[in-house]
Write a structure and sequence with these properties.
The complex is a heterodimer.
Chain A: H1 13-30, E1 44-49, H2 54-66, E2 70-75, H3 87-96, E3 101-106, H4 111-117, E4 124-130, H5 136-151, E5 165-169, H6 176-187, E6 191-195, E7 211-213, H7 216-219, E8 225-228, H8 244-251, H9 255-259, E9 266-268, H10 281-284, H11 291-310
Parallel strand pairs in A: 1-2, 1-3, 3-4, 5-6, 5-8, 6-7, 8-9
Chain B: E1 3-11, E2 16-22, E3 25-30, E4 38-42, E5 47-50, E6 52-57, H1 70-79, E7 82-87, H2 98-111, E8 115-118, H3 134-139, E9 146-147, H4 157-166, E10 173-176, E11 189-190, H5 193-198, E12 202-203, H6 205-222, E13 226-228, H7 234-245, E14 250-254, H8 256-260, H9 282-294, E15 299-300, H10 329-338, H11 345-360, E16 377-387, E17 406-416, E18 419-423, E19 426-427
Parallel strand pairs in B: 1-4, 1-5, 6-7, 7-8, 9-10, 10-13, 11-12, 13-14, 14-15
Antiparallel strand pairs in B: 1-2, 2-3, 5-16, 16-17, 17-18, 18-19
Helix pairs in contact in B: 4-6, 6-7, 7-9
The chains are: A alpha/beta, B alpha/beta.
Chain lengths: 327, 428
């Protein structure tokens, strides 16, 4: 694996499978009475969040604490950043305090890449979402969820997602989740179809390793998983679609549409959901919807990523079977 | 002022000749000229060009002296072989009054490295709403003939029409920064395959092309001439070619960076590649080179845009747009146009001196290298190859996309009306 995790496109198939397998080990820790490993004791990780994202920040924080890392949370609001301090100065200030890894969420696409490649700091950089570019740990937790559900928890170990048909629906244009998922799912052998109104499909998408469709209904019967992306209501003010209701009618997932999916197929959502917009309550609360599982899996996957990037040669879980020495 | 004999220079790339300068004027051009009483510069087969003229420079003074001043900018110009530069109006305060343009003009004259011809703003404060006092700027000591809101597009069709009409009274020209503002809200780079992957806001080619199409039609309708700044797309080339075939009085410029670099470089997220209009695709680059060769694009203009280090040492979205260009322009043109066989040195002289002077009505510049003409000259060592080192720039800023890149050619001497401003690559 590379030293940093910036883009899902940087992961090889073997990297990705290793992370997913490691995450399964980490998940077992969550079943224990004491949900903590000593692996990153004495290491310091800063969660550097320039954008509000309580969910992602808490998920990383839980992962870091379960690995016994020392955690610093840095939120740009009310900090020196709001007084004009640059990303470079903020990062260097934190590194001077002895930080081993920076988990960064930033509104500007490419900010984590700059942090990792500009010689500003030496710490390991983990991208927790940058602009409309990438959100690699989200893609990993989604792949983890799909592998568990579509291949099996134990049967999935060492396996990828070869041949699985994944449909991603919604605001692809503004979605780092869509970009990361297309990259990772392709690497893992899945067949990805993006469904969106043409206004929310980026110009230049033709080189992406996926299909693009404007028609949800014809895609649903051929899907093993359908991932609904959040659609911000404000988008209609920029004429991406006429009204919330029209969007919902054409691209929302309701009970009728869900019934057209194969029986084994699952419904996914990266959260936060806009109920009544891209997904109805009936679907969101159904057995087939994995939203809550995805949250739990997020912690396991982030533990695996941090462990693999920072943990060195120590086995993650000392008494358990380990697959972590392939690096 | 004494005499200077430039011995054995390939004038416009032709056979080696001698050029004798007396005072501010070229006294003679020919073989075996007498060196009596003259300081001799052995050209040794270097190429002698008329002093270069840049129709598009940002000198930043007044207001952003932290990035460039008239002094540092004109030293950079002399260093790059330029004897005249047109200074864009987007200063603080904006060059929209006679007072500001006269100040910039006089600073250029005082420093003496390069003539500075201020460009006046088309609209007050570059706001696109109310015409600036174009006539007053023309009649001022600065004698402004080129007007531009560069950095912003004159997007209101009525204001553009009026400006095109109004400047006809004194032979002026409006230089349009063609960028439809609504189509480029939040734009960060060329819209296409790379922007889709990088998740950076797209700056579509159509935002440039639609404005150019509108403006050439407006120019035709009111019988005015119009100049297109930094044309950057293959589609824009087609529109200008069509307009010229129709007899519309349109001229266009291309920057050196659009002749060489593509949006693939943005994958580094290094803001040194962030520029407006953005770097485009390989297809566009090739179309621009071809258009510059066949005359559809008239001139090369640098869009020299200095920025302090901190404005580039940051994440892409926060970075300023623009790159310095005066000190590398000729090398990039040699690389992209001469070494590819698209232009000879006479063609380079035409596109970097004669025609820009003509478009901007820069009296005394862009003249032939012949007896009786002003001694504005540039001597180029075209055999030289070296990598670009921004530490050696005369500009106050270092935001070049060519750091470490090997480029051919080096300007060794520049003369402004017979006075050497650059000797053996060193500013005087």
């Amino acid at each position: 694996m590379q030293r940093h995790l910036i883009s899902a496109a940087d992961l090889t198939r073997d990297d990705a499978v290793l992370i997913l397998d490691t995450a399964e080990e980490m998940a077992r820790v969550a079943d224990r009475p004491i949900k903590k490993l000593p692996t990153l004791r004495g290491r310091t990780i800063v969660n550097l969040f320039f954008e509000d994202s309580t969910r992602t920040r808490i998920s990383f924080e839980a992962a870091e604490k379960r690995l016994s890392a020392d955690v610093i949370n840095f939120s740009a609001k009310g900090s020196s950043v709001s007084k004009g301090e640059s990303l470079k100065d903020t990062a260097q200030t934190l590194e001077a305090m002895g930080v081993d890894a920076v988990v960064i969420r930033h509104g500007a696409s490419g900010a984590p890449y700059r942090l990792a490649t500009s010689g500003w700091i030496d710490a390991v950089v983990v991208n927790a979402g940058d602009g409309t570019h990438q959100h690699p740990t989200q893609a990993l937790l989604d792949a983890f969820t799909m592998r568990r559900r579509l291949v099996g928890r134990d049967a999935g170990l060492g396996q990828d997602l070869a041949g699985k048909r994944i449909t991603i629906v919604g605001d692809v244009l503004h979605s780092r989740v869509a970009r990361s998922n297309v990259d990772l799912l392709h690497t893992l052998g899945a067949e990805v179809t993006l469904v969106a109104p043409p206004t929310l499909v980026p110009v230049g998408i033709e080189t992406w390793p996926c299909e693009v469709s404007y028609d949800l209904d014809s895609t649903l019967p051929k899907s093993d998983a359908v991932m609904m992306l959040r659609v911000q209501r404000e988008r209609m003010n920029a004429a991406f679609f006429p009204t919330e209701r029209e969007y919902s009618r054409r691209y929302g997932l309701d009970g009728d549409r869900m019934a057209r999916m194969p029986e084994h197929a699952i419904v996914m959502h990266p959260g936060p959901m806009v109920r009544g917009m891209e997904i109805t309550a009936e679907v969101a609360d159904s057995e087939r919807c994995t939203v809550v599982e995805q949250v739990a899996n997020g912690v396991s996957v982030r533990m695996a990523v941090l462990y693999l990037l920072l943990g060195g040669n120590e086995p993650a879980v000392s008494h358990a079977r380990t697959t972590t020495e392939e690096k | 002022m004494s005499k200077i004999l430039i011995r054995g220079a390939k004038v416009l790339g032709g056979e080696p000749q001698d050029v004798l300068i007396d005072g501010a004027v070229i006294e003679a051009v020919g073989a075996g000229l007498s060196a009596e009483g003259a300081e001799v510069v052995e050209a040794g087969g270097k190429v002698l060009l008329p002093g270069l003229v840049d129709l598009h420079t940002h000198l930043r003074e007044p207001g952003r002296e932290d990035s460039e001043t008239v002094l540092t900018g004109t030293r950079a110009a002399a260093s790059g072989g330029y004897t005249a530069v047109f200074a864009m109006a987007n200063t603080f305060p904006v060059a929209d009054t006679a007072g500001v343009v006269e100040q910039v003009y006089r600073l250029g004259q005082e420093h003496g490295y390069c003539d500075v011809q201020p460009i006046g703003a088309v609209t007050v404060g570059l706001e696109g709403r109310k015409l600036a006092e174009l006539g007053a700027m023309h009649e001022s000591a600065a004698g402004v003939t080129v007007f531009s809101d560069d950095g912003k597009c004159v997007d209101d069709a009525v204001i553009m029409r009026r400006a095109l009409e109004y400047v006809k009274a004194f032979g002026g020209v409006v230089a349009q920064h063609a960028q439809e503002p609504r189509l480029t809200e939040g734009a960060q780079m060329n819209e296409g395959v790379v922007s889709a992957e990088l998740g950076l806001g797209g700056w579509p080619a159509v935002a440039e092309e639609s404005i150019i199409a509108r403006d050439v039609l407006l120019a035709e309708h009111v019988g005015s001439r119009v100049h297109i700044c930094h044309l950057s797309t293959a589609g824009s080339v087609e529109i200008v070619r069509w307009a010229k075939s129709r007899g519309i009085d349109v001229t266009a410029e291309v920057t050196p960076h659009h002749l060489l670099l593509t949006d693939e470089l943005v994958r580094s997220y290094n803001p040194v590649y962030k520029v407006n209009p953005p770097l485009r695709t390989e297809k566009d680059v090739l179309a621009l080179r071809e258009a510059l060769a066949d005359g559809t694009i008239d001139i090369v203009a640098t869009d020299h845009a200095p920025h302090p280090h901190e404005d580039k040492d940051c994440e892409w979205a926060a970075a300023a747009m623009g790159m310095v260009g005066l000190e590398t322009a000729l090398s990039v043109v040699q690389e992209t146009m001469v070494e590819t066989g698209l232009l000879d040195w006479a063609g380079v002289a035409s596109r970097m001196s004669f025609k820009p002077a003509l478009i901007g009505r820069a009296t005394g510049h862009g003249r032939p290298v012949s007896a009786g003409e002003p001694a504005n000259l540039t001597l180029v060592d075209t055999e030289y190859r070296g990598s670009v080192d921004p530490a050696g720039f005369a500009s106050r800023s270092r935001n070049t996309p060519y750091q470490g890149r090997e480029l051919p050619g080096r300007v060794t001497h520049t003369w402004l009306r017979g006075k050497a401003t650059l000797v053996d690559g060193k500013l005087t």
